[in-house]
Amino acid sequence: MNNFKDFNFHPLIQESIDAMGYFKPTPVQVKTIPLILNNKDLIACAQTGTGKTAAFLLPVLQKIAENENYYGTRLLVIVPTRELAMQIDQHVQGFSYHIPVSCIAVYGGGDGETWDQQKSAIASGVNIIIATPGRLISLIGLDYLKSDSLQTLVLDEADRMLDMGFYDDIIKIINALPKKRQTLMFSATMPPKIRQLAKKILTEPEEVNISIAKPAEGVLQGAYLVHDNQKQALIMDLLHDKPDLKSILIFSATRKNVKVLHKQLKSDGFSCGAIHSDLEQHERISVLNDFKNRKLQILVATDIVSRGIDIDSIDLVINYDVPSDAEDYVHRVGRTARAEMTGVALTFINNREIRSFQNIEDLIGSKVHKIPLPPHLGNGPDYHEAKPHKSGKDKSKGKQKFRKRTGK
Ligand code: AMP
Tag placement on the chain: N or C end, fewer CB within 10 Å? Predict the structure, then answer.
């Protein structure tokens, strides 16, 4: 399957695929599209950046278009965050440009007008709903959802939703849907709780496994061992050294760091924006759009944007600190080298984070190259400083997770 044309999509959908510049399907698309067209239930282990959104949207749109039946709610996609909901909505707009499919992204926040729009779209049987669990439950509670025509339910980033405590909400939503439906579950990882959920809600699912938790190929990964008081100087060095890079994403664990870095970068003359949870939703969207449209060269962000957000062709990701959850590293690094492009990901490791970084290396199954600090910054911490693992507890965490995932 080397070409989208082999799927024989409706000509008006194929036209949109061409317009979006997709020629060759990605591996997750090759494996899942025929199964979804064949009405199978599916559990797919695929991280963001693999092309999973098109993998489920295209066959569902095909089913709607081939019958030319644009009546009623046919697809419900449940997602963990509003950012992901908006991103999938944008994909729908792209793929359904030439067909009269209606779609709404439904998420919390917003004003009374947004709520009214969501309410009336859902009540009128909009074809595609992309929703975060909380807001959808409110709408179901008020009896707005008309799910009689529902054909397909997608749970996207299912592991993330469970991490965020949405299990009960998901079950409540599913109980409000017709039993006869196709259910597709996408998850970056397959911990036991995901398997349990799959057992509960899927019927004889096909299983597709695209990724173990590894950053996409094509990402060059490097790390600096650096003391906290050297980090700011190092980042300034790196950024001044790379004026050609158009899109740089910097992650930091805390709002405080994000704000400090943002201020410093701006005062050094960089075109830079910041996203953290103190911002209103409309402010976040506007910064994100400016970054996507290349009006901003650098975006500094807390973890909110690390998963599920589709920003094309980021040249460089910098982890200003080591993410405490090893899987978040994979998601952050996944911002670069999307869909078979190349990118660079650099991580700053201080002496307290060495062990967390070792967990990451265990998880991804390889050592990340440690780059020496520029000499004028002095020495950083020694990588072997991490204390031996007492009872193996910390270190085994990453290994156990990896083993569970790969079944080794
Ligand atoms: P996703 O994993 O769905 O978030 O997709 C990651 C990125 O890859 C998005 O920017 C998509 O537009 C892009 N993409 C998905 N499938 C393809 C494809 N077959 N060819 C080129 N780009 C793609």
Answer: C
Residue 77, φ and ψ in degrees, nearest 5 = -115, 120
Q: Which of 349, 346, 347 is nearest to 380 (CA)?
A: 349
Name the phi and psi angles at 44, rounded to 5: -120, 125
CA-closest residue to ligand 1 atom 12: 51
Q: What is the spatial distance between Cα 227 and Cα 260, in angstroms, rounded to a whole number?
A: 17
- Give 46-55 pLDDT, tens digit per residue: 877 778 999 9
Q: What digits encode the pLDDT tens for the residues 13-52?
A: 999 999 988 888 888 999 999 999 999 999 998 877 778 9
pLDDT for 359 equals 84
Task: Return the CATH number of the domain spanning residue range 219-406.
Answer: 3.40.50.300
Instruction: Give the whole-angstrom CA distance, residue 207 versus residue 185.
Output: 10
Fold observed for domain 4-209: Rossmann fold (3.40.50)
Q: Is 19 helix (H, G, I), strand (E, B) or coil?
A: helix
**Residue 26 alpha carbon, nearest atom of ligand 1:** 19
Q: pTM for this structure?
A: 0.62
- pLDDT classification of 408: cutoffs 50, 70, 90: very low
Distance 85 CA to ligand 1 centre (A): 16
Tokens of 275: 């996203």
